[in-house]
Amino acid sequence: MLTSITSFFEKCLKPSNDDTADTATDKLHLACAALLIELSVADHERTEEETRTLRKILRETFHLQDKQLEDLLDLAHQEARSATSLYQFTSLINAGYGYEQKIRLLKHMWEVAYADGRVDRYEDHMIRKVADLLYLSHNDFIRMKLASKPA
Fold first, then answer.
1. Cα(54)–Cα(134) distance, rounded to whole angstroms?
2. Cβ(107)–Cβ(61) under 8 Å?
3. What burial class does residue 54 get, using C-beta atoms within 10 Å of its C-beta: 0-12 exposed, 13-18 middle, 19+ buried?
4. CA separation, residue 40 to residues 14, 15, 68, 73, 146 (Å)
């Protein structure tokens, strides 16, 4: 099983020298979607509000049509199920995103976590871990948490 996970990662996510700009962008979208999906089930329950928020974020952030969104979600679900760690996603994001894009992703993670009206400790832990893996400060973590909190 580990071999199949590794080959999927190599084929679908690992950056390569022959990646086109579109391919590299697709891999980043997939990595971000997989992190958001992983977060939506971190508390062992996926609510309709979280799903709706996740879909809205992906559609608006990546400017996706319905078919593209469904394809991305399907791939991201597969990747999230087979992931052995968050590092395979965050390493790709670190290679392709600048500071502002990482901050935006962190904010989106908080929006998904808050979608059901509460932030579970597992969601908080996962976001903290992703922030650390993206080399974002604790100040960034708190700032985005507060900025995303519903009124």
1. 20
2. no
3. buried
4. 24, 26, 20, 12, 19
What domains sit in the chain, N to C, each tagged with a CATH number?
2-148 (1.10.3680.10)
CB 106 within 8 A of CB 134: yes
Tell me: the pLDDT tens digits for 27-85?
A: 888 889 889 988 988 888 888 999 899 999 999 988 888 888 888 888 777 777 776 78
∠ CA 3-7-8, rounded to 5°: 115
* Residue spans of beta strands (DSSP E) within 11-87: none
Phi, psi of 138 (to 5 degrees): -65, -35
Q: With DSSP H G I counted as helix, E B as strand and the rest as coil, what are the percentages for the chain, rounded to 5?
A: 75, 0, 25
Cα separation, 20 vs 146, whole angstroms: 37
Contact indicator for 12, 79 with CB cutoff of 8 Å: yes
- Contact, 34 vs 79, CB < 8 A? yes
d(CA 28, CA 130): 15
